Amino acid sequence: MTANQEIDSILQRGADGGRITPEEALLLYTDAPFHALGEAADAVRRRRHPDGIVTYLIDRNINYTNVCVTACKFCAFYRAPKHSEGWSHPMEEILHRCGEAVDLGATQVMLQGGHHPDYGVDYYETLFSSVKQAYPQLAIHSIGPSEILHMAKVSGVSIEEAVLRIKAAGLDSIAGAGAEMLPDRPRKAIAPLKESGARWLEVMAVAHRNGLSSTATMMMGTGETNAERIEHIRMIRDVQDLAVANGYTDSAVEAEGSVGGFRAFIPWTYQAENNHLKGRTQATTLEYLRFIAVSRLFFDNVSHLQASWLTTGKDVGQLALHLGVDDLGSIMLEENVISSAGARHRSNLHELIWMIRTAGRIPAQRDTLYRHLAVHTTPADDPTDDRVVSHFSSTAMPGGGAGRTELPLVDVS
Ligand code: SF4
């Protein structure tokens, strides 16, 4: 209980699974006492996931090119076309990295890249079908609405045609990447050449109705207001309402009757290095944790909430497990995009499991669709592979490149 009856009543409704309005979410974000807010959010987690399980994933983020025409101000990863540091990996290198990931127990790859001026739908069809053919056991949870809009434009086809073609080629799930801030003002301020938030959501809605589920992200800390943060999640919740109302499912789990659309929400914090924004604004740890809790209460129609230990650090990631989070995300065998901007937190399989267990939860490895692959009820159930560590080959890290000094690249000039 708090000293404010209005806040008490909203917290209680949210904890019980009732819907809270954007205005109420903003009031909670700015004024609710921290412990009461966290307790209400954790009540939602306990109701949604009464088994006490917190999940993690083994995957690898593989970047096919850093060449991009969109020049987002917060991005440290991209290089403009013809820049001397621009690169694209040939297919053999991408497949080589997928093979390494499989050897380390990965169940998913996230193929991400810049908006290369020459990459239309056919490039992505080849990319996904090649990976699927070589490693059918890997789920391809990749690209985002921005890449889909870009490839559709390059190829001169509709969003729907692009989605259907890349799905047929092997794409299993769309990553929530590129959401950053969806409301117009903050989006234009940090990514003036990117599609609008409305277009980002339109692509997701097309994918959802065609049986491709996805995640949704948010990047905090580039000068957006509290109200704009809440507006971002309001926009996502409205699109998820469509998925629920229309009974959209993911094609892969239709038989299990699970709801499609957005499977998870993943807020993360802007990283300050090597980009045009230069870290003039950043989200504080408390802002992040309060937003995690508010998100859990606000999203009455999204199953999972993921902590971003890569950007906030492992202690904060673990603390988030007490504020409604039920997933620690990936071990990230490789990550170059956010790492380029300064996110240097690393972990390993044992540590991720330890973080979950010492938070009083039961660790479980999951797949892309959040199905449990191995539940580690006691330490005797824990996996023992010491090789499963973060960034074992990130090019953004010193000594990266999968142990090789030279990365094979194709000429993009
Ligand atoms: S965030 Fe993506 S779209 Fe924006 S500049 Fe970086 S690579 Fe390009």
UniProtKB/TrEMBL annotation:
The keyword Transferase does not apply. SUPFAM superfamilies: Radical SAM enzymes. Its EC number is 1.21.98.1. [4Fe-4S] cluster binds at residues 68, 72, 75. S-adenosyl-L-methionine binds at residues 74, 180. Its cofactor is [4Fe-4S] cluster. Binds 1 [4Fe-4S] cluster. The cluster is coordinated with 3 cysteines and an exchangeable S-adenosyl-L-methionine. It holds the Pfam family CofH_C. InterPro entries: Aldolase_TIM, CofH/MnqC-like_C, Cyclic_DHFL_synthase_mqnC, F420, FO_synthase_su2, rSAM, rSAM_sf. Keywords: 4Fe-4S, Iron, Iron-sulfur, Menaquinone biosynthesis, Metal-binding, Oxidoreductase, S-adenosyl-L-methionine. One of its GO terms (biological process) is menaquinone biosynthetic process. Pathway: Quinol/quinone metabolism; menaquinone biosynthesis. Residues 54-301 form the Radical SAM core domain. It catalyses: dehypoxanthine futalosine + S-adenosyl-L-methionine = cyclic dehypoxanthinylfutalosinate + 5'-deoxyadenosine + L-methionine + H(+). It comes from the Bacteria. NCBIfam families: CofH family radical SAM protein, menaquin_MqnC. This is Cyclic dehypoxanthine futalosine synthase. The gene is mqnC.
